[in-house]
């Protein structure tokens, strides 16, 4: 890859290295320079600029990141679309993140252009939580580096995967000493049930007996069959020959290990009976705060119960006790700051189709399905968390035509007031947990789900990308993604222009997302265009619309 000053005569196709602002010119870093761009720069008196130019043995940042992320990702891992050389990976299930650290390290050591950052091995994760990010240091990676990374990633099981928690059945036995109140034991049951249910398990049994070896052994032998047996002693285990380990052995079990280098949680007992794990709980297990018992419980639920040696290796990072510089270290920690954005797709399908005469274009049949179904299906196939369809004109007919699709319908009785009224009705129905909305138009049948995914991948309000709009050949198209912070302004709009006017008012928060897809410019708003589209769809040639057929509204 060449990087440095380039004369305009040699800069077509090069990538701008630094943002450029000069009068009306505002080109952002990373822009691939077209002949039109160079003409504008030349007219402004610019003779050369700093840019990167890829060779035949370079792979562009987005393509390189996508290939490496796909090779690295294993089960229950979602790979997001690439943007600015970054691909984020998210959990698809609740469980434990498993890594092959040596192979992740090996990929990071290939070339300085290739980087992978992950959460720690065995990190408990929630659905939608970010696990890792693959980042190509701008603006490309050598092809041989990408190929080496792929070989390392595929040399064995994927080096990054989520092991979902299994539906674990758990039995609990508590011992008691004279004078211990039932309320204390009841609290232990409640805390244990909450712990087990948090990982998708079920506490199927709890019983109590005296803190006596014989009585406890009888309880163990008589406990119902469960995936895991927990024993909470009235007194902490102090030795391998104490009441709990002795009772386990008396009932036919085997003590595998006592103690662990995790604090709190030192006095955990690891045992086994009839091929099922048995845990003697440390006293801290009566508290809901994170302790060593949680680490062992999570691994058992994920189907990888720790061995004696693995428990003894938990000391690095095992200091969980609260200290002045880290109060309540993990209590209530939420992955919200590192989760996939929740984006609602809003399909506007309420218009009267005034230029179509008596025909409602949205209901026009194209290859056996209504035209509007194409926009809805693209939204459903994307990474949007949910899809809302706003109806208006002939709303019941539109809803019937889409009745077999998992969407939420919102009717706009004021549809005659224009696009803004449908936008307002749709925004009011967006779930409170959604971070943003991508506004799709029902009469734009050639917008692909991949375009929506590119917008979601680009979206990052913290980095100034709060409005994301697709572009092709220098033209802005649809759909448009809007951060929730704009909802109030969008709801205050009137008329038929949608939210287009807001884009200019918030240029500092706008991100243009280049896509090689002229479908973002194509809407069907006349009988002639509908006939041409229907004919093209019938012949299977709808993938390359005429870029001159430009949509006129921005959601």
Radius of gyration over C-alpha positions, nearest whole angstrom? 30 Å
Tell me roughly what share of residues is in helical segments: 25-40%
Count of folded domains: 4
**Number of distinct beta strands:** 30
Profile the largest sheet: 8 strands, mixed
Secondary-structure map:
Elements (H helix, E strand, L loop, with lengths): L1 E6 L7 E2 L3 E3 L2 E3 L7 H9 L4 E6 L4 E3 H12 L4 E3 L6 E6 L3 E5 L1 H8 L5 E5 L5 E2 L4 E7 L3 E3 H11 L6 E5 L4 E8 L5 H17 L3 E9 L2 H10 L5 E5 L10 H8 L3 E5 L10 E5 L2 E5 L11 H10 L6 H5 L30 E7 L15 E2 L2 E2 H11 L4 E6 L3 H7 L6 E4 L7 H10 L7 E6 L7 H10 L8 E6 L2 E2 L3 E4 L3 H5 L8 H6 L4 E5 L12 H13 L16
Parallel strand pairs: 15-16, 15-17, 17-20, 21-24, 21-26, 24-25, 27-30
Antiparallel strand pairs: 1-5, 2-5, 3-4, 6-13, 7-8, 8-12, 9-11, 9-14, 10-12, 18-19, 19-20, 22-23, 26-29, 27-28, 27-29
Helix pairs in contact: 2-4, 3-4, 6-7
Question: Which key features would you list for this structure?
Answer:
single chain, 555 residues, Aldehyde Oxidoreductase, domain 3, 4 domains, 27% helix, globular
Outline of this structure?
The protein has 555 residues and is an alpha+beta fold.
Describe the protein in words.
This protein is α+β, with helices and mostly antiparallel strands and about 550 residues long. The chain has four domains: about 1-55, Molybdopterin biosynthesis moea protein, domain 2, CATH 3.90.105.10; about 60-165, Aldehyde Oxidoreductase, domain 3 (Alpha-Beta Complex); about 170-315, Molybdenum Cofactor Biosythetic Enzyme, Chain A (3-Layer(aba) Sandwich), CATH 3.40.980.10; about 345-535, Spore Coat Polysaccharide Biosynthesis Protein SpsA, Chain A (Alpha-Beta Complex). It has 16 helices and 30 strands. The strands form eight sheets. Strands 21, 24, 25, 26, 27, 28, 29 and 30 form an eight-stranded mixed sheet that branches. Strands 16-15-17-20-19-18 form a six-stranded mixed sheet, with helices on both faces. Strands 7-8-12-10 form a four-stranded antiparallel sheet. A hairpin with a 2-residue loop joins strand 22 (about 365) and strand 23 (about 370). It starts with a strand and ends in a 16-residue tail after the last helix. Residues about 325-335 and about 545-555 have low confidence and may be disordered.
């Amino acid at each position: 890859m060449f990087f440095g000053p380039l004369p305009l005569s040699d800069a077509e196709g090069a990538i701008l290295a630094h943002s450029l602002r000069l009068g009306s010119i505002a080109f952002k870093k990373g822009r691939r320079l077209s002949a039109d761009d160079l003409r504008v720069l030349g007219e402004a008196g610019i003779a050369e600029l700093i840019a990167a130019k890829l060779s035949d043995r370079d792979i562009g940042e987005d393509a390189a990141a996508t290939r490496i992320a796909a090779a690295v990702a294993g089960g229950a891992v979602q790979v997001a679309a690439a943007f600015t050389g970054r691909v984020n990976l998210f959990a698809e299930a609740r469980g434990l993140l498993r890594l092959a650290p040596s192979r992740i390290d090996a990929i990071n050591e290939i070339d300085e252009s290739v980087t992978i950052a992950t959460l720690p091995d065995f990190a408990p994760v929630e659905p939608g939580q970010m696990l890792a990010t693959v980042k190509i240091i701008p603006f490309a990676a050598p092809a041989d580096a990408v190929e080496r990374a792929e070989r390392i990633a595929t040399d064995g099981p994927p080096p990054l995967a989520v092991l979902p928690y299994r539906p674990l059945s758990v039995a609990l036995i508590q011992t008691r000493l004279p004078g211990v109140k039932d309320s204390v034991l009841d609290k232990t049951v409640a805390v244990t049930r909450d712990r087990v249910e948090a990982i998708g398990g079920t506490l199927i049994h709890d019983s109590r007996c005296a803190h006596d070896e014989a009585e406890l052994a009888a309880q163990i032998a008589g406990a119902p069959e469960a995936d895991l047996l927990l024993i909470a002693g009235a007194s902490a285990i102090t030795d391998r020959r104490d009441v709990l380990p002795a009772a386990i052995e008396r009932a036919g079990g085997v003590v595998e290990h006592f103690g662990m280098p995790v604090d709190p949680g030192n006095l955990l007992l690891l045992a086994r009976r009839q091929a099922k794990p048995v845990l003697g709980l440390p006293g801290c297990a009566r508290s809901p705060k994170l302790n060593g018992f949680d680490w062992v419980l999570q691994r058992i639920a994920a189907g990888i119960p720790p061995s004696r040696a693995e428990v003894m290796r938990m000391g690095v990072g095992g200091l969980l006790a609260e200290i002045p510089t880290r109060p309540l270290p993990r209590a209530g920690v939420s992955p919200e700051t590192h989760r996939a954005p929740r984006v609602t797709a809003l399909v506007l399908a309420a218009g009267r189709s005034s230029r179509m005469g008596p025909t409602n274009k949205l209901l026009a049949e194209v290859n056996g399905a209504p035209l509007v179904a194409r926009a809805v299906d693209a939204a459903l196939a994307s990474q949007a968390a949910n899809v809302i369809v706003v109806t208006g004109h002939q709303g019941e007919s539109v809803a019937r035509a889409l009745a077999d699709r998992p969407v939420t319908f919102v009717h706009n009785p004021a549809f005659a007031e224009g696009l803004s009224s449908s936008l307002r009705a749709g925004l009011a129905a967006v779930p409170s947990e959604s971070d943003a909305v991508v506004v799709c138009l029902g009469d734009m049948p050639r917008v692909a789900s991949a375009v929506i995914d590119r917008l979601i991948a680009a979206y990052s309000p913290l980095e100034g990308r709060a409005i994301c709009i697709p572009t092709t050949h220098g033209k802005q198209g649809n759909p448009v993604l809007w951060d929730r912070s704009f909802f109030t302004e969008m709801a205050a709009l009137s008329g038929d222009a949608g939210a287009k006017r807001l884009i200019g008012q918030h240029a500092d928060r706008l991100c243009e997302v280049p896509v090689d897809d002229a479908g973002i410019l194509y809407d069907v708003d006349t009988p002639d265009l509908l006939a041409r589209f229907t004919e093209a769809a019938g012949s299977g040639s709808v993938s390359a619309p005429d870029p001159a057929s430009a949509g006129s509204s921005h959601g």
